[in-house]
Amino acid sequence: MNFSFLSDPRYNLLGAFWNTIQLTLWAAVGSLILGTVLTAMRVSPVPMMRGFATVYVNMVRNIPLTVVIIAMSQVLANGLGVRLASRGEGAAGAQAFLTSQNFRLAVLGLVLYTSTFVSEALRSGINTVPVGQAEAARAIGLKFTQILGIIVLPQAFRAVVAPLGSVLIALTKNTTVASAIGVAEASLLMNTMLENEADKFTAIFIVFALGFVILTLPTGLLFGRIAKKVGVKR
Amino acid sequence: MSKATAVLYDHPGPRARLRNNVLSAVFLVLLALGVWWVIATLEDKGQLRAALWKPFLTSQMWTTYLLPGLWNTLKAALFSVVIALPIGALLGIARLSDHAWIRVPAGVVVEFFRAIPVLILMVFAFGFTVTVLDVADPLYAVVIALVLYNGSVLAEVFRAGILSLPRGQSEASLAIGMTKSQMMQIVLLPQALTAMLPAIVSQLVVVLKDTALGGILIGFVELRRVAGTAASFYKNVVPIYIVIAVIYILLNLALTSLASYLENRARRKRAGRGSGPVEPAPTVEAAQAPGLTDTGRL
């Protein structure tokens, strides 16, 4: 098998995977925050917030990620004129603007989508906390925010480490969808390479498949180990 | 709202009710401000003119764009699931084999295809079909990629389903002299299939959403892609994306409610047997809880 394309300067393989990693990390942090907020809203005593969070989660979960991310570019950026990056001078500035704008739009799309899965995981984690604990917490006079913040959520997080690991792996794979709005990550580079060197398609596939196995396999093992370590024994 | 979350706060008294109402009002105002900003901006950019919504009343919009796209989406999803089901069952059973030379390769295949993004698989499958099979139809690539991926996910579903059956079932079938393959075909697999039906139906949601990947790099003309073409023809990006989002949501909500209907029916059946306490199989439940599952369910 011919792997000569690996040393071809036209293909920035490491750069593409670095973009994949960056997309994953930013989107992971964002989804964890938004997902936690959504979960708190879903279990809160305020009916309006509960309703909003439930409708949001059930709607966004059912839209393909591709539609979500392209809508970020077509509807949010082009239709509504939202800018997530500052425009520079000249042609180079315009190019830099497009690159960072598309990257941020992709991250935003990934966050809006992934947070619904984080929220579902966390909510199932809340259900693993015995009811008696919340009752006891209320009995000693803790308020809703205290019960959720001090007693329930910390245990819920520990219970859902493994599912959150699965969400993170899925997120890593989902970053490939950012190629739909031209973010230079792994799948876009793979597509370009296949167009140029159609005869080496198996070798190219193996390289990219291995890249993702290297990214996702340790994540799964790591989260499995953490889950065992921090899981609450009941 | 489950019991566990309802217990997080007390039944609201007069003060709590007042506070909740105030918070509700504040939240509503913030939400209304957000919606107002969106509508005002859309109005400002001329995206809300009635003319932009008119095309949806013409037959051309539907017969030329949306319906063919939707048909391709449904076709790809259906083909993928129908082909992936037997492959998934085979792989799932192979992973439970007593022979390492069957078990280990099956495990490697399943783990490998679950670890790589479907889009990468699709791009590869497109290169493969064009170069090796000399077929330039992206439908093939979409179906191949979705079959490989969902076959692996379904293999895990089947494995969990078979493992969730009481051990007495296989012991009894061996005791009355069945061979292992008879036991699998006559006793275990039919039960696993019924127990897994809800999970399989909800996997359809994933497949349906993933068909949209075919429109990005390999030019599969599915619903999202025709929406893009239609949007550049009618110059009404925002309305079209709203319409296709609604179509996807309705389709998937229908599938989700079918899955939970099947699940309730299965639970009633289990309860109806009336022999001892009803214990829902833990692995089955885990496989169905959204978000609690494998890498596959996003």
Helices and strands, with pairings:
The complex is a heterodimer of chains A (234) and B (298).
Chain A: H1 13-42, H2 47-60, H3 65-79, H4 90-126, H5 131-139, H6 144-159, H7 161-174, H8 186-196, H9 201-230
Helix pairs in contact in A: 1-2, 1-4, 1-8, 2-4, 3-4, 4-6, 4-7, 5-6, 7-9, 8-9
Chain B: H1 3-6, H2 14-44, H3 50-53, H4 59-95, H5 100-115, H6 118-131, H7 138-163, H8 167-175, H9 180-210, H10 223-234, H11 237-272, H12 282-288
Helix pairs in contact in B: 4-5, 4-7, 4-9, 4-10, 5-7, 6-7, 7-9, 8-9, 9-11, 10-11
List keywords for this structure.
heterodimer, A: mainly alpha, 9 helices, B: 298 residues, mainly alpha, 0% strand, flat, disordered C terminus
What integer value in Å does the Rg of chain A equal? 21 Å
Helix and strand sequence of chain A:
HHHHHHHHH
Shape of chain B: flat
Tell me about the biggest sheet of chain B?
none
pLDDT averaged residue by residue of chain B: 83
Tally of separate helices of chain B: 12
The assembly state of the depicted protein chains is heterodimer
Beta-strand residue fraction of chain A: under 5%
Distance between the termini of chain A: 53 Å
Helix content of chain A: over 70%
**Beta-strand proportion of chain B:** under 5%
Structure report:
- The complex is a heterodimer of chains A (234) and B (298).
- By secondary structure, chain A is mostly helical.
- Chain A is built from nine helices and no strands.
- In chain A, helix 2 packs across helix 4 (90-126), helix 4 (90-126) packs across helix 6 and helix 8 runs antiparallel to helix 9.
- Chain B is an all-alpha fold.
- In chain B, 76% of the residues lie in helices and 0% in strands.
- Chain B is flat and about 75 Å long.
- Chain B starts with a helix and ends in a 10-residue tail after the last helix.
- Mean pLDDT of chain B is 83; it is low at 274-297.
- At the A-B interface, helix 2, helix 3, helix 4, helix 5 and helix 6 of A face helix 1, helix 2, helix 6, helix 9 and helix 10 of B.
